[in-house]
User: What shape does this take?
Amino acid sequence: MKTTHLLATIIIVLLSACSGDNNNNRTIFTPITYYFNPVGNAVSVENGSSMIDYLPDFINYPNDLAKYGLRGPVYSVDISSIPASKGDGWFTMYYDKNGNLEIQKWGMNENFRYGESYNLDYTETGYLQDMYSTRSNHRNSDRYAYSDGKLIYRIRGDYYRKYDWGVNKSGETVPRKVTTYKRNPQYIQGLPAIDLTFTNSEQDYSDWEIDSLTYWIPFLYGMVTDKAKSKCLYTGPLLSSMDTEYTLRKNMHKYDKLYGHSEFHYNENNDLSSYEFVLRSDPNDISKYILKKSLYFYYQYDEYGNWTERKITGTDDDTPFELNTYREIIYYSKEDLASIKREEQQMINKPFKGYWQYEFHNEMDYDYYELYINFYDKDIEAFGRSNTLGFFRVSTTSPIVIGEMTTVDEITEANIKGNEAEIKYICGRTDEIRSAKLVFNPKDKTITFVDGELIEENTKLDFDPNEYPSDFEFNRLEPTEQKMFYVRRIPILQY
Assistant: This one.
């Protein structure tokens, strides 16, 4: 068994994003609220669960602004049933520079009483790291795993979701399905269940659309339901109709199943202009229905084409319906956007400064790798050492190890050539000196660690490093090459 350095070839890579890097050339998207409740304002889906629980699962959208049908450099959206100038909004969302949701709160006063509020933390490149309730301060309830920048697992409690991807005829990686699994059949705590499948045809947009959607415990006018399964059709990139089969709770209703049909129509701004819903006990008998909903939408818009006032009229189960909603939208300024571009240019000019991470976990083991570097100013201070180029750090937890094992490797030399850096480092466990190469990718800001050679062996070891597992072999990680993901520009160490 050969002596090894930090990191390894492995299937799963770090972190999550609320979305992939797909569909970046598209500008028209169906807001994800339409699949659950077209009248809603992203507060909840029809089963009462927070829409934020499903936000990372819609992997066919480029970011959260697209998921909510927002356009332009949006910073915040304040939603209320009265004009924002006359009172505080009851639902507010804040977005980062990448268009991902950072804060979502509703019904929340200044003391964080009542209502609910969620914070979402991201890396600089848009990978979701943490999503937690401000009210309960419960952090890291979800775990995320990616492969080649694509979300493949999401875990919470007794449930996990698996995300399957494929390649279309243009050679692009596209989503195929999202499936929820239960790890322990005796318990039900965890992610609210949802399954998605995606369309597959030669049309560009259809490789991204939702073909079918199944979710559990949907709302259905006071009826106790188990799940809803919808089949979706599109006109261009927009949802045009949806047929839904509702499974009702056994022995509680006259029917075991009910069938809903929804029709969506849009205005010239690609916003909903009318919505019709019919619920039947027999999907083949169109002359009879249990209830019917017909709604019409009217808007006022701002300069970016986002609506600021919306009026809905019509009938809901033969009852007159009217709802007025107001949105106050604040955008990033030109100065804000210019500052973001300056930061990006600094990254291009001096790429080897910052903090990168990599993570591997399954149901048994958890390995966490970190890279802190500043090859330009040599000002990294940690672990009793100062004025260093930087460190690798690995933390491991497994049934084989009692507690957590942490090892630190100090980088002692760095020779920068463009987007590559030849380095030397001291292995924290063996005190051997090894070489490696770091390769920076300006497109996604990742750094790939490429294995080098053993330069200086430690002859005073009281064990044979060729027989005793190294830190990384111990974690099933035989290192050859590994990609690490960018988190932030300032390499502040987390103890």
About this structure: Residues 16-332 form a domain with the Porin fold (CATH 2.40.160). Residues 1-22, 467-478 have pLDDT under 50 and may be disordered. The longest strand covers residues 319-331. The two ends are 32 Å apart (CA to CA).
